[in-house]
Write a structure and sequence with these properties.
Distance between the termini: 39 Å
Strand content: 25-35%
Helix content: 25-40%
CATH architecture: 3-Layer(aba) Sandwich
Largest sheet: 8 strands, antiparallel
């Protein structure tokens, strides 16, 4: 079954109050999460590309983008890393119609962070940030554990970006190394 997180909530609802106070600052970050990680990890930030391919979105991703579940989309999965630790697992779901014209280059990002490209080059608007906790039976959780060791319960956020009025969905899973950094007082 191609199911992902189904308990998405708008940020700032009671679910988020259970997050560490310093992690909430990361969950609420309105700008580029990539930029924030770079500031917290000067000189040690890099992107590890896990996959870039055509595929099917999870059912909730398709619904969030207003697509039919079987529509083919461009999937990009990466780890945003600080030194030898993965801090964030990122998943981008980009509909075929978004990848036209000057946005076609989003298929060839390689190790370049999507956030850096989006926030610097294009007219951009962000939809509401939603948050959730991953459960062991979530498709997204199964994707994450293929690449990095995590336990169920990781905090995750997502939002739809409109780039030149074309949508794409970005989901970010906050991994244990980032949670430990936040718990230790790394609030930058």
């Amino acid at each position: 079954m191609n199911r992902a997180v189904h308990k998405w909530r708008p940020r700032r609802l009671p679910l988020q109050r259970r997050a560490l106070p310093l992690l909430r600052r990361w969950l609420d970050e309105p700008g580029s999460l990539t930029r924030r990680i770079r500031r917290s990890c000067p000189g040690c930030f890099y992107v590890e590309v896990l996959c870039e391919r055509w595929g099917s979105p999870f059912l909730d991703e398709a619904r969030r983008l207003g697509l039919r579940h079987k529509n083919r989309v461009w999937l990009r999965e990466v780890l945003l890393c600080c030194g030898d630790s993965a801090w964030v697992y990122g998943r981008s779901v980009i509909p075929r119609q978004t990848l036209q014209g000057r946005l076609r280059g989003l298929q060839r990002l390689g190790r370049q962070p999507l956030g850096s490209v989006l926030f610097k080059r294009y007219p951009l608007s962000r939809g509401k940030i939603e948050i959730a906790r991953l459960a062991a039976d979530d498709g997204l959780y199964r994707q994450v554990v293929r690449s990095v060791a995590v336990a169920p319960g990781c905090w995750v956020r997502r939002s739809v970006f409109h780039v030149a009025e074309h949508p794409l969905l970005v989901t970010e899973v906050f991994l244990p190394a980032l949670v430990a950094r936040a718990a230790g007082g790394g609030s930058s």
